[in-house]
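Appendix B, Record 12. Input sequence as logged:
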Amino acid sequence: MRPYRAFYVRAMLFLLACLLAGCSALRLGYANGDTFLYWWMNGYIDFTDEQKPWVKVRIDNLFAWHRKTQLASYAQLLAREQQRLQTRVTPADVQTDYAELKKQAMLVLDKALPDLTDLAMSLQPQQIAHLEKKFASNNDSYRKDYLRGDVEDRQQFRFKKVMKQAEYWFGDFSAQQEAQIRAASNARPLDNDLWMAERLQRQQELIRILRKIQTEHPSREVVSGLLRGYIERSFEHFLYAEHKAFFEASRDGTVQMVALIVNIATPAQKTFAIKRAQKWIEDCRSLAAKAA
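Logged structural output:
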C-alpha cells in the first residue's frame, strides 16, 4: 500500500479484498458492499454451487459485524482529520494516519481470517487456475496503464492520479498549486517496472500458498497462519529487502507530497475538505445507527 492512500479514508471493510488482489481501496458504495464483495470475489475465484451459499452468509455476517463495531471508529478518525486541517500537517502526521488505517484494516482482516481460511481450504485446482488467469488479465491492463511511454509520460500519468484524489477532497486547484503538487509528485522515485515486479511477486506468492493448501492439506491452524503472514506482508512490500532504498524513498516522498497538498490548500479548499469528510462521518454514523 502506498502511504498517500492513508489520507484518503475509505470504507475499510473492502480491504479484506487485499488477500486476492492487493487493492488498498475499492470505491463502490458501502451500503451495497456485501453484494459487491461477493460479485468481486466471484470474479477472481468462480465459486462452486456448494461454496456460493455459505460464502454469501459469511460476507453478510462480516458486514453486520462491521456496521455494528467499526463504523463509529471511522467517524472518529474522520473527525480528527477535520481538526487536523485547521493546523499545519507534517509528514509524521501522514505516517500516523497510515498506521491508524493499517490498524483498522487489520481488525477487519483478523475478523475475516477464519472465513478466508475456510475458503482457501475449499478451493479446487480449477479455481486456482481461474485466479491465475484473472491476475494475468489484470496485469495486462496494468502494463497498458503504467508501463507505456517514456519517463515524462509515466510522471504525467502518476500526477493525474494524485490530482484526481486531491480534487476529490479539496476541489479545484490553481495553476500555481498544481505546479507545486507536480513538483512534489515528480520528486518521488519512479520505477513502474519495479512496482510491476512487486505486483507479480505478491500474486505468485498467493498462488503458491493456495496450491500448497490444495495439494498438501495442512491443518486449519497452519492455513490460517499462512494467510495471515501473507496479509501482513501485503501491507508492506514483498521485494523490500532487495529494494529497501527505493521503497523508503518512495514512502518519504509520498508523505511529503500529501503534507504539501494539505498545507497549500486555501481556507476555501480546506472548508471543502471538511464538508466532504463530514458527509462521510454522517454516513458512518447513520449506517452504524441502523445496525444497532
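Residues 82 and 285 are 16 Å apart (CA to CA).
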